[in-house]
Amino acid sequence: MNERVSMRSVTLASLLLLSACGVSDVATTALTGAKLQAEQAGQGKGVLDKVRADLDAAAKADQERTAAAESEK
């Protein structure tokens, strides 16, 4: 169950990264890294906690970029 939730989180983070930057090379690299992190999450709780923190940081960064872009309009 946790692995399924992690994959959903990884997919969501990947989509956020893809929509935030729009550069396919960066998105492909991020997706590959996220998939590797998701596989490692199944190997231990410590790794799972790190993945969650990274995803939260990515979502926060995306929100900040969006807010900054909107304030520039």
How would you explain this protein's 3D organization?
- 89% of the residues lie in helices and 0% in strands.
- Helix 1 packs antiparallel against helix 2, helix 1 packs parallel to helix 3 (45-71) and helix 2 (24-41) runs antiparallel to helix 3 (45-71).
- The protein has one domain.
- It is elongated.
- It has 3 helices and no strands.
- The protein has 73 residues and is mainly α.
Core attributes:
73 residues; elongated
Short structural summary:
This protein is 89% helix and 0% strand. It has helices at 2-21, 24-41, 45-71.
- Structural class given helices, strands, pairing? mainly alpha
Helix content percent band: over 70%
Order of helices and strands: HHH
Distance between the termini: 43 Å
What percent of residues are in strands? under 5%
Overall domain count: 1
Helix count, DSSP H or I runs of 4 or more residues: 3
Topology readout:
Layout: H1 2-21, H2 24-41, H3 45-71
Helix pairs in contact: 1-2, 1-3, 2-3
